[in-house]
Amino acid sequence: MKSKSKKIASFSFNSILQGFYHAWQFIFTVILISIWIVAWLVQAGSIDMPEWTKDLRDQDDEDWKVRDEITSPENTMASRIPMSNFVIESAVIEAPFSDVWHLIKLQDFAKFYSALEKSEWVKGTSPDTDIVRWTFKDGTVLEVKQEEHSTIEHYITYSIISSQPALTYTSAVSTVRLYAVTSGEHAGQTFITWTGNFSSDADADAIEDAKFKRREALADLAKAVAKK
């Protein structure tokens, strides 16, 4: 008799649990269908969203504005492009080494580089500091400091210490180095490299501009020594 009572109690408890489970499934299904119907009606313009959702909608709009700015092509493409902050351009100049090396002085760059209006020493600086001002024809003015100069290894290294207008990056250190070509079809001519190490905040436009200007200057250098 007791065993039968236990079975009845167990059956009743299980039935209640199953009833709750089925009821919850039904309620959940109704909620999902209701949400879908409301969303469809709002999308179709048949009904308006309740006023109490206005603040949430405004917040969503702001979130999307920020998200659009972050995911815009200008921002995402720049972050995807692997950037190298080192630039090197080179050329073979069809002129004797001594003729080319004679022009590789910061204060003499205007003698061959057509983009420069003038290149001159900056007065009033320390006797131990060599600073040259490059005034470009487009109005840009750079002051560059000679960091190294070797008449043995034939190179100069300089850094940009000021710019008008201001640069879009923090710093850049460049080196112009010459080699005498001693054999082969270019024997008696000059091989020149012009490198640049830019700070990590230099973007793709700055790097491409540096490459273009070096190529342009090297082409002008070749023309200048060819006239001799």
Question: Can you characterise this structure?
Answer:
The chain is α+β, with helices and mostly antiparallel strands. It folds into two domains: about 15-70; about 85-225, Alpha-D-Glucose-1,6-Bisphosphate, Chain A, domain 4. About 40% of the residues lie in helices and about 25% in strands. A seven-stranded antiparallel β-sheet has the order 1-7-6-5-4-3-2. A hairpin with a 7-residue loop joins strand 5 and strand 6 (about 170-180). The chain is elongated and about 105 Å long. The termini are far apart. The model is unreliable at about 75-80 (pLDDT under 50). Keywords: Membrane, Transmembrane, Transmembrane helix. It comes from Fusarium ambrosium. Pfam families: Polyketide_cyc2. This is Bet v I/Major latex protein domain-containing protein.
CATH homologous superfamily grouping of the largest domain: START domain
Q: Using DSSP, what is the number of strands?
A: 7
Using the 3D structure, state the CATH architecture of the largest domain: 2-Layer Sandwich
Highest CATH level, the class of the largest domain: Alpha Beta
Spell out the helices and strands N to C: HHHEHEEEEEEH
Shape descriptor reads elongated
> What would the CATH topology of the largest domain be?
Alpha-D-Glucose-1,6-Bisphosphate, Chain A, domain 4
As a whole number of angstroms, the C-alpha radius of gyration is 37 Å
Strand content: 25-35%
Please list the strands of the largest sheet in the order they lie side by side: 1-7-6-5-4-3-2
Helix content: 40-55%
N-end to C-end Cα span: 125 Å
Largest sheet: 7 strands, antiparallel
Structural class: alpha+beta
Oligomer: single chain
Domain count: 2
In DSSP terms (H or I, runs of 4 or more residues), the helix count works out at: 5
InterPro entries: Polyketide_cyclase/dehydratase, START-like_dom_sf
Keywords: Membrane, Transmembrane, Transmembrane helix
Transmembrane segments: 21-42
Organism: Fusarium ambrosium
